[in-house]
Design goal:
heterotrimer, A mainly alpha (94), B mainly alpha (205), C mainly alpha (536), A: mainly alpha, flat, B: mainly alpha, 6 helices, 77% helix
Chain lengths: 94, 205, 536
């Protein structure tokens, strides 16, 4: 089956996404330079998560891919998160 | 599924190739995931040491590298758009810029690592075992994770070079761009990993 | 669609002549059926090496003290036995052989989605296997850490750990690529009219297995690389002397190795789900439950790894969590067992060798599975952890389970693969000897394990002597059974009567095509039934 030219991401969309990503990067650097303790990590990771979401959705075209693929990607991240969480059940309580 | 009379050539399934590349990306995510898991455990155990060690890293260079990779992600996505719109020249230019950004990243990495080596910080150095545990672990993880990431940058570059040549000679075109699409996906993966690596290595306050 | 005048001349995949000649027609083959046989012959060879190592251990354990080897040698032997059996036989076994051969056929496809990648998978498998074998002969001696390579011993021992773990890494790559190939194949190449819920149950099992291979293997990959890095650079991830945590190694190792056991057992259960309906001439009971239970086992199986670590020093909360999840993961397995038995109830049972192996699978799996629950409960685990009880448990599950399912698949699909029949009487005798020998070998190990006999020990206290002798006799009987089985099958392949397309009255697609199949499997459009288990 040949390529389905169903959706082409426009240049300006890609440009806008880059702008957002750079903004987020700047934000991360600023926030982590402030002394917010444990909150810094959380915010940094949340922003990183958002950046990843943008890269996945627009650069990697997931927004316009099949539902199956989007579910699979989500599943992989959930699986990884569960593995980390469960491992911490050991370390947090030792 | 395919015609019985064509046994070779045009049994082409681009959706299958794309799914295959996404599945491979899953394996890479979990490969690095293992390292992120190790990082998070040791960070929680050696909080102070991780914080102090990360001060050795240059946030500026890290930020430049981050921007370079984000920018390269955009340019390779644009290369794909260009190819889909049959704009061969633009596609070639965009792939070229992507590769250039990758080189910038690697050059920066070379200087970063070189600086550490000069200080006696490298895996297996006589200095490392003398460090306090948290510091040893931080730098070990630093070299391991950024090293593995750099290896993937190189692999990605090889993939993109191949795409460059195939766009040039017309093997990749607006009717047949699966290889470029999948090569771009791989490149985005490299960017994705760095998106998490950067704050965790450089920005721990 | 072919007309009478365009009918494709039937050429068996065994006889087909393509681009290459001689041995190259095989090792460069991209035909999934040839690749399946390449895997089969390699894996059979490794299995027999593993068996010999096992028998050597049995001889050593037949008498107290040093019998034929010293402690260091024994450590090497059980390590190699484990590495070969786990990484080169049981993990790839059913998927690479029968998954490769029959997945495309069962879904009505001509081959897998990426035939050349399939060939690469086999090449990588052979490279990894050669590396694993080579690690036995380095001057530093074979690894003596156990196949689990626990740190900190594995990071400091002088034996050839690096080569062995590199071999495992390479073998992991093969597993990942096979899983990738099968997932895409099932998504993209099902024949028109075959939705997911019209697929037979073996493809369902392969699908669930493929996901585990894909997602779990990278984690052990990176863990082994960390192990190698620690040996080379003294990094200190796992060595407590360097500030590391040996438990972290165990977590990482078992995060893969527990799902890996589901890689072993899921295709086995898939095979049983194919054989039972055929030999009962009855639709499988609870098709959807069995299909979805495979996914459930795969999913939940990712979350139970800590039950290998109850005595390691994990937190109490962790032990509680893993125990709970372990009991939950047993449920979908039990569902399958109930459904198989329900299928047999009032079925028109035909007791042929494949059915014998399938039924004995169920028996042995139940023993292995329920002793798993005993191990899964924290309190009882403390008594039996690292004893012969564990050894008995996993041999019942892996050998009695996956192993017997492998033999079942061999006997079931033999006519299709080689186009010949084997002698039923001889096969039945082989099965009987195997089954008896197996139980005599492993059952006593439950008992002495409970009484305190440790695993991985080459010597033991006098009170365990009798049971060890009985076990060793069982091992001998088992070996005889294996020989009878192999001789029967080899004779059949060489001189057996030509096999019809459908010797068992099966309903799935492989029985609609000639035995052996032609190169592209379906020379005519296959008839896709809504219900794959449709017997008149």
């Amino acid at each position: 089956m040949a390529n389905n030219v169903s959706h082409i991401t426009e240049y300006r969309v890609l440009g806008k996404v880059l702008l957002v990503l750079m903004l987020m990067t700047f934000l991360t650097i600023t926030v982590t330079s402030l002394d917010l303790g444990a909150l810094s990590v959380t915010i940094a990771l949340l922003i990183a998560g958002f950046k990843a979401f943008m890269v996945l959705s627009y650069f990697m075209h997931l927004k316009h891919e099949s539902l199956l693929l989007r579910i699979l990607v989500g599943f992989v991240f959930v699986l990884f998160a569960l593995i980390v969480l469960i491992t911490f059940i050991d370390y947090a309580y030792r | 599924m395919s015609e019985k009379h064509s046994h070779v050539e045009e049994h082409r399934d681009d959706e299958a190739s794309k799914l295959g590349m996404w599945l491979f990306i899953f394996t890479e995510l979990l490969l690095f995931g293992g390292l992120f898991l190790v990082y998070s455990i040791f960070r929680s155990e050696y909080h102070e040491a991780f914080h102090k060690s990360s001060l050795e890293l240059s946030v500026t260079i890290g930020a430049i590298n981050t921007i370079a990779l984000l920018f390269s992600s955009m340019t390779i996505a644009m290369a794909l758009t260009a190819m889909q719109k049959n704009n061969k020249k633009l596609a070639l230019l965009m792939i070229g810029i992507t590769l250039f950004m990758a080189v910038i990243f690697l050059v920066n990495k070379y200087f970063e690592w070189g600086h550490k080596f000069e200080m006696g910080l490298y895996p297996g150095s006589p200095l490392m075992p003398l460090l306090d545990r948290g510091y040893l672990l931080y730098f070990s993880l630093y070299f391991f994770m950024t090293g593995l990431h750099a290896l993937h940058i190189i692999i990605g570059m090889i993939l993109l070079f191949i795409c460059l040549f195939k766009v040039k000679n017309g093997t990749i075109n607006n009717k047949r761009y699966s290889l470029l699409e999948n090569g771009a996906l791989y490149w985005h993966l490299v960017d994705l990993i760095w998106i998490f690596l950067f704050p965790l290595m450089y920005l721990i306050s | 669609m072919t007309t009478e005048t365009e009918k494709i001349k039937y050429v068996s995949y065994l006889d087909h002549e393509g681009k290459y000649n001689g041995i190259f027609a095989w090792i460069f083959a991209t035909d999934h059926k040839r690749i399946a046989l390449l895997y089969l012959y390699a894996i059979a060879a490794f299995f027999f090496v593993g068996v010999i190592l096992g028998e050597l251990m049995r001889i050593e354990l037949s008498a107290q003290g040093e019998t034929i080897m010293n402690a260091q040698t024994y450590n090497g032997v059980f390590t190699v036995h484990g590495v070969i059996m786990i990484f080169m036989v049981v993990i790839p076994g059913l998927s690479a052989v029968f998954g490769n051969f029959f997945l495309p056929i069962l879904i009505g496809a001509k081959d897998v989605s990426f035939p050349k990648l399939n060939r690469l998978s086999w090449w990588i498998f052979m490279v990894g296997s050669v590396m694993a074998v080579a690690s036995q002969f380095l001057r530093s001696g074979p690894p003596d850490t156990g196949w689990t390579f626990y740190a900190p011993y594995s990071t400091t021992t002088g034996t050839s750990v690096i080569l062995a773990t590199s071999a495992a890494f390479v073998l992991g790559f093969s597993s990942i690529l096979t899983g990738l190939n099968f997932i895409v194949t099932i998504h993209r190449l099902r024949a028109p009219g075959m939705g997911f819920f019209n697929m037979p149950l073996f493809p369902w099992a392969i699908y669930a297995t493929a996901w585990i291979q894909l997602l779990a293997t990278p984690i052990v990959g990176i863990t082994l690389v960390m192990l190698i890095a620690e040996r080379l650079f003294g990094i200190g991830f796992f060595d407590p002397n360097l500030g590391g945590d040996p438990l972290l190694y165990q977590h990482l190792f078992w995060i893969y190795s527990h799902p890996a056991v589901y890689v072993m057992i899921l295709p086995a259960m898939g095979v049983i789900s194919e054989i039972i309906p055929t030999f009962c001439q009855r639709k499988i009971y609870g098709y959807k439950a069995i299909a979805l239970s495979s996914l459930a086992i795969a999913g939940v199986g990712f979350l139970v790894w800590g039950h290998h670590m109850y005595t390691s020093g994990m937190s109490e909360q962790a032990r509680w969590f893993f125990s709970l999840l372990t009991f939950i993961v047993a449920v979908p397995s039990a569902i399958k067992v109930f459904n198989w038995l329900a299928t047999m109830y009032k079925g028109s049972i035909d007791i042929k060798p494949p059915f014998l192996y399938a039924v004995s699978f169920i028996f042995l799996f139940i023993i292995g599975g329920t002793t798993g629950l005993l191990l899964g409960s924290v309190a009882t685990n403390i008594q039996v952890h690292d004893t012969a009880f564990v050894v008995a448990h996993f041999h019942y599950i892996i050998f009695g389970g996956m192993g017997f399912a492998f033999f079942a698949a061999l006997h079931y699909w033999f006519p299709k693969i080689w186009g010949r029949m084997y002698d039923f009487k001889q096969a039945t005798i082989g099965w009987a000897i195997l089954f008896v020998g197996f139980n005599i070998l492993y059952f006593p190990q439950f008992i002495i394990g409970f009484q305190g006999m440790p695993r991985r020990y080459f010597d033991y206290l006098p009170q365990f002597h009798t049971a060890q002798v009985i076990s060793s006799i069982g091992g001998l009987i088992l070996a005889i059974g294996l020989i009878v089985m192999v001789v029967t099958l080899v004779k059949g392949a060489r001189k057996g009567a030509p096999a019809p397309a459908n010797p068992w009255g099966g309903s799935t697609l492989e029985w609609q095509i000639p035995s052996p199949p032609s190169v592209e499997n379906f020379d005519e459009e296959p008839i896709i039934k809504k219900n794959p288990y449709d017997y008149q």
